[in-house]
Design a protein that fits this description.
Blueprint: H1 35-54, H2 71-74
Length: 78
């Protein structure tokens, strides 16, 4: 992952930035958004997910502290 933060100073549609050389010739994704907007959006999603989690009845949750993974049981298909 490569991340760069910059402040555009001119009113120009071309915003230059460098990418690592090993990415040349590969498909890459560029996402651009103002940082203040992203923080607001992330807080909104966090609040929404917290409400969803609290709405899950406790009977569907299991105790992770006392959980022991049993490989034999997990691979028993019969």
């Amino acid at each position: 992952m490569y991340r760069t933060v910059f402040t555009p100073t001119e009113r120009d549609n071309k915003i230059p930035f460098n990418i690592p050389q090993e990415w040349y010739g590969k498909d890459i994704e560029v996402i651009v958004f103002p940082l203040d907007m992203s923080q607001t959006y992330l807080r909104k999603i966090a609040r929404k997910n917290e409400r969803k989690f609290k709405a899950i009845p406790t009977k569907y949750l299991f105790d992770t502290k006392n959980f022991k993974f049993d490989r034999d049981e997990a691979n028993d298909y019969e």
